[in-house]
Amino acid sequence: MIIGIEGQRLFRKKKHGMDMVALELIKNLQDIDHENEYYIFVKPDEDDSVLKETSNFKIIKLDGGSYPVWEQFALPKAAKKYGCELLHCTSNTAPFFTNMPLVTTLHDIIYMESSYYKILTGSATAYQKFGNVYRKLIVPRVVKKSDKIITVSHFEKNRIAEFFDIEEDNRLEAVYNGVSTHFKPISDEAELKRVKEKYHLPDNFFFFLGNTDPKKNTKGVLKAFSDFLKQTKSDYKLVMLDYDMNELKKLLDEIGDKQLMNQIVLTGYVVNTDLPAIYSLSTIFLYPSLRESFGIPMLEAMACGVPVITSNTSSMPEVSGDAAHIVNPYNPEEITEGIIKILSEKEYSENLCKKGIERSKLFSWKNMAEQILVLYNEIKMKHHD
Fold first, then answer.
1. Tens of pLDDT, residues 58-104
2. Which CATH number characterizes residue 203's domain?
3. Would you say 281 and 185 are in contact if contact means Cβ atoms under 8 Å apart?
4. Measured at the alpha carbon of residue 220, what is the angle toward residues 215 and 226, in degrees to the nearest 5?
5. Same structural domain, 267 and 308
6. Residues of the chain by 3-state class (helix, strand, coil), percent to 5
7. Distance in angstroms (rounded) separating the CA atoms of residues 329 and 288
8. Pairing state of beta strands 148-151 and 57-61?
9. Average pLDDT of 345-374?
10. 342 and 218 co-located in one domain
């Protein structure tokens, strides 16, 4: 079978979660499938060494304008040209002018849950707003058209089934994401020192991957961290990645603690292979999002042996099991209490670390690729009958 996989943004330097999932899928399919022929359709960009061609995997660099234009026109045209018998679109949307069997990975439907007005007047960036409006327009059509719809947790599968009224539909499959094998506890002093110096990390810190997306609960985390410092008078810092300074100041204004800026360290963009050292250096990983469809960073932190605080909402309890400290993310006091409990109860903290390492082992990219390969073959059988 000739399979096309959409990997539009795989070569961009700053990859998002969905890009990493698609990359891991392709790399693991390269390891396990030497039968089918694959064409990976990618937009040319600077980070093109992340994926190599093999005898049955060809990379096709496709120009073709902006994201929607590329996806709706350049992609189906190229898939047809190379004789693809199945097209897998990996990041929520897909072309609707194509007759070939379609597999779509729908990571979440958060954008479907908001009105256009709410999306356009929300606090997200212009780029995020455009993406959400595009998805809101496209996804209902793609759901109708797809032969298989893959999503990343049973929580999200139920949300999608309910929202699009496809409960009895066997096209919908939950396939868990994995955690990459380089996420493990780092004890090599030289590596820890290198990463600590590179990103100017403090001695004692909590790690939080917040961004301007409201679902990440940045305001709740800042409030909880502020209260923690007031209650304990300790000198922990909060390490975050990229964050718009004006947005951050606005949030600190809203929680009434402008001084908190002195306790926040912004690293800027972090290379994925440096993350295990940052997790390993941190005391607690904070992941109390309001809504997630899966939550890969939580498993990465667990694999590195760090205690995790996460939420009792959406997919997070499903993914974390009993290996994280669970809070109500709408109540910052619970986050503060969780931090204090982990810091003051050594046995509790060590137990979370042990359970976390075991829990993370249940999620592998190889499993994901094997399950998806089975779905490809099911579609082949169906269309060849």
1. 999 999 888 899 999 999 999 999 999 999 999 999 998 899 999 99
2. 3.40.50.2000
3. no
4. 150
5. yes
6. 50, 15, 40
7. 5
8. unpaired
9. 98
10. yes
